[in-house]
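Researcher: Please translate sequence to structure tokens.
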Amino acid sequence: MGRLEGKTVLISGASAGIGEATAKEFARAGSNLARILTARRVERLESLKKELLTKYPSIKVHAVDMDVRNRSAVEKAIASLPNDLKDVDVLVNNAGLVIGLDKVADVTSDAIDTMIDTNVKGLLYLTQAVLPRMKERQQGHIINIGSVSGMERWQAGIPRWCCVLRYEKSYALPLTSMFVSPSRDSGGALCILIRLPLCFTLTASKHAVDAITRALSLELVDSPLRVTEVNPGKFFSSKTGPSWLFQVKAFRFMVIHSIFSPFSNIPSGMVETEFSVVRFGGDQNKADSVYKGLQPLSGEDVAEIIVFAASRPPHVNIADVLVFPTNQADARTTHRQA
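Model: Translation complete:
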């Protein structure tokens, strides 16, 4: 019998991406695995529930319509779980999102509230609803999905050599929401350094997740309960469609280096999910360009790590994991094929 057989696992944000992949991976881990799936998109949850029960008929699956931002809804959902699923063995705090690329001075209050309420308060609400019973039973594992954003601090924009132009007359760069720094190289070519603003709210919220995880580990050190943080970086989506390009105009110039999509250099752990589509307000083309020239992580890649951590023997705790695709060294450094 595997270590996860018969365990009750609760996953937030299970309707897509890493959450959905994690649900499937846990289902594969044991023939009697009881599952609780939570998300706001009920139709997707029901579809996933049907798929899992068809493939693994011996497991139990319970889908819950729950918005983690609503504390009373979280408490009600946990209190109304079926009796045979009330004792949660593994909690995966996966629900999270990012909206836009705005700077501190520009981000809207609605975007701030949505990100903080989901990424931080939602994680706390669900943890507080499940943890007391784990303490009573002296058994449980909390796995928080963090981000490389919670391990590094961003500046207002990330430098990117977008293109090199050799010019004879004046130039115009009709770019918005970006800092453009022109200069000349030793050969007289015009070098344009682009700084792309990042969303500081995601960074702040994921630093909070890291702090919460570390504090919880300290609080529970005298108990058998385990706490893990998995940091795959920001999540992005890639389906189909061309990359979005800078439009650079000049009276006369010769392009020495090709123009790259600014979104292809957004720092990340690069996990291919719906995360980037949400970030860019549903703009699939902008989301697609994030992955140009490299192979990102998939939701399944991260899910395997989550299940591996959960399946360790009771005396072993995988406290912290940072995962990148092979051609990424840190949040800012990637190698892309032409």
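Researcher: Any highlights?
Model: The helical segments are 17-29, 42-55, 71-79, 109-137, 200-219, 275-279, 284-288, 299-310.
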